[in-house]
Amino acid sequence: LKLRTIVVVPRRAVLASGLLLAVFFSFSHSLLSQPGALTVVSKDGRRTLATTVQNEQDFVALDDLASMFQLAVREDALGVTIAYKGKTIVLTVDQPLASVSGRLVSLPATPIRTQARRWLVPAEFISRALALIYDAKLDLRRPARLLIVGDVRAPRVQVRYEPVGTGARLTVDAAPRAGSAVSQDNDRITIKFDADLLDIPASGLILPAQTPAQGIVQAVRLADATTIAVDLGPRFSSFRAATQQLDTATRLVIDLTAATVAEAAPVPSPGAPPGAVSPTGAAGAAPLPAAPGPPPDLSALTQTPSSIRTIVIDPGHGGDDEGVKGPAGTKEKDLTLTLARRVKAAIETRLGIRVLLTREDDRRVPIDDRTAMANNNKSDLFISLHANASFRPTLAGGSIYSASFEPGAAKAARALAPERVPAIGGGSREIEFVPWEVAQTAHLEESDALAKLLETQLHDRIPLAARPVDSAPLRVLESANMPAILIEIGYLTNPNQERQLASAEFQNPFVQGVLDAIIRFRDVLDEKRRPAASGAGK
Amino acid sequence: VTARRVLGFGALAIALGAMAWVLFVGLPRAYRPRPQPLPPSTPAAAAPGRRIKARLFYVSEDGTRLTGVERDVPYGDGAAAQAQEIIKAQLAPPATPLISAVPAGTTLRALYLTSNGAAYVDLSREAMNAHAGGSLDEMLTIYSIVNALTMNLPAVTSVQVLVDGKETDTLAGHIDLRRPLTKNVSWVE
Questions:
Q1: Which pLDDT belongs to residue B38?
Q2: Sequential DSSP letters for A214-261
Q3: Do B174 and A474 touch (CB under 8 A)?
Q4: Per-residue pLDDT tens for A436-483?
Q5: Which of A189, A365, A499, B64 could, after both became Cys, cross-link A230 (CB 3.0–4.6 A)?
């Protein structure tokens, strides 16, 4: 009798569960065929986390999460316990809640237990519950379907396009702040961000709604994970980029100038694909700068005949990177910011040259962003301010450094000679290909000249080191595409110098010395470029 | 008859067995060269204590350069092993008049040598965290490591400093560490 029942019951169960499984499989198949997995991005690379949609809600499988994030999942009668490094999340059956280390957080939907004994949790479980106990930062970005793990730099990028006069303006906001390098490559402008990837809204990048007559920009698109490409139209003539640090974002403004109507007339057809420009068209034509197109608006404001229009000053360190700390507590980051502000004020009021600071306040700015700011703003001069440290506390005096490179780096840079390419508006233009990492190699001679001038001007004003001019493989200078030097104002490790560097008796002559060196350097450049610039400075 | 034959075979087998033991076990055992108890006195045993002369680099008297000092360093078998010994010696706290340009507490995590002569020196995080900053000191820190290898070992032509197993941009915000660096004598007095 017993035997019979034992045989009968399982057969029924098998039948029933078989039916259920069949139902589930057809159901789950339709679930899984839904598009839109999450892309999980971490320092180690990218992975995919499958999602299933039910009632318009994204769910992820708990066992997928467990294997991805090393979670221990234990199921009991009341629900599921998820453990990670001694911390726990408890999910209760039939409730859109999770208890995270004893704290209740709400979920947008109730976790689902499938017939295959898999647990599905709403995607928000990651950001609302798991993120609270996980070691690395977990950032779920639903619109972009991204899950960012740890310190991956993934700024949200938004692009706006607006016609301005006959030209146009592209505003590219990156939040949180991210540096970028803008370069023109034939018929496109590329914006390469200093990031690991870009978070682009689901609506995509804009394609400018423009009158057919405008035709300056054809498309704005994502070229690769960190690069935005602006495909230029037939009426594009020139551009100027400027970076601005907003509270939480970096704003890149690209002003695009249109060629005049008469100039645009010979263009074959506005619909021609950008790649269709033949390199034979423009031989012997006049270079573009001579074209009668309207000058870029920014330079028109400060129409100085000088070789130096913009200077970027870089106050070293900042934020949690304090730099050198003196025995009495003076911090390098504060000293460099104070001096940078004073140098900026002096140059702007006395020389009328635009000065930008790589940081306006006490914040951490990545080294590459500092150099990128100088490059993007087409700065004519880059000066980085630092204070030195020595293992010998008696060492004193300022030093001026230019960049140095490993043998062979300059050769590699020279291999990329400037190339003359046809411009769409007629004529041709020279495009320089500058490898970012060794951009400074083209300017070393001028940088050294500037260092010598600074030595001369500072020599009688402030204490200088025994060998005040030197060169070193300084990261902040290597990528600068303009004359660039780094000034170590003195040794904060020397108690006397620490007092001195913060005083007006040091700072006033220092600022004056820098100012005088810039004036003399400008004269040197004006002299060098005399054929181009008529009637150089006063 | 059969019983005697069996006995005879048995005796023969035992005799053969005994001879075999003497030949293959007893004699070798008696005439074994016995290396185990001897090593402390044999000349070959000096190998672990063998030392070579190497130039190590410390902060110069005036603090602005590196100064080379000849030191005995344990012998390493092969370029990579020797490179390790040199870096270990370079990282060790020097005797009093000398000052190390590498932050105290820095240890060598690993050292790799590629076939094209690039050494990857993986330092512990103290190299970065305990660094006081400043372009000059950072320069001295890095080139005491770079020069210790490139000036002592012809097999090493360039050195890339890693920290905590990872490539790093800089130690304290100044000197570019993204690529291997070659020997630099201009910072040695």
A1: 37
A2: T-SEEEEEEEETTEEEEEE-TTEEEEEEEEEE-SS-EEEEEEEEEPPH
A3: yes
A4: 788 899 899 999 999 999 999 999 999 999 999 999 999 999 999 999
A5: A189
**Which amino acid does the sequence have at A76?**
D
> How many residues belong to chain A?
538
- Distance, in Å, from the CA atom of B103 to the CA atom of B135, rounded to the nearest integer, reads 14
| Look-up of token digits 């062979």 | A408
pTM > 0.80: no
Query: How confident is the model over A161-177, as pLDDT tens digits?
Result: 877 777 888 888 888 88
CA–CA distance, A468 with A329 (Å, rounded to integer): 26
Do B137 and A491 lie within an 8 Å CB cutoff?
no
Contact A488 B169 (CB under 8 A): no
CB A187 within 8 A of CB A193: no
Helix (H, G, I), strand (E, B) or coil at A340: helix
| Predicted local distance difference test score (pLDDT) of residue A112 | 86
Per-residue tokens: A496? 């006397």
Q: Which tokens in the block code for residue A498?
A: 């620490």
Q: DSSP assignment of B44-83, as one string? A: GGGGGG-EEEEEEEEE-TTSSSEEEEEEEEE--SSHHHHH
ipTM beyond 0.90?
A: no
**Cα-based torsion angle of the residue sequence A396, A397, A401, A406 in order, rounded to the nearest 10 degrees:** -30
For chain A, the maximum distance between any two Cα atoms, rounded to a whole number of angstroms, is 116
CB A135 within 8 A of CB A149: no
Among A44, A365, A391, pick the best mutation site for testing chain B contact (most B Cβ within 10 A): A391
Give strand ranges (E) for A18-86. Answer: 38-42, 45-49, 51-54, 57-61, 72-75, 79-84
A71–chain B nearest CA distance, Å = 26
Residues of chain B with Cβ-Cβ distance to A475 below 8 Å are 169-170, 173-176, 178
Q: Which two tokens stand for residue B179?
A: 């690529």
Residue A366 has pLDDT above 90, yes or no: yes
Tokens 């076939």, residue located: B115
**In contact, B164 and B173? CB cutoff 8 Å:** no
Tell me if residue A60 falls in helix, strand or coil.
strand
Going by pLDDT thresholds of 50, 70 and 90, the confidence category of residue A269 is: very low
What's the length of chain B? Answer: 189
CA distance A80 to A73: 7
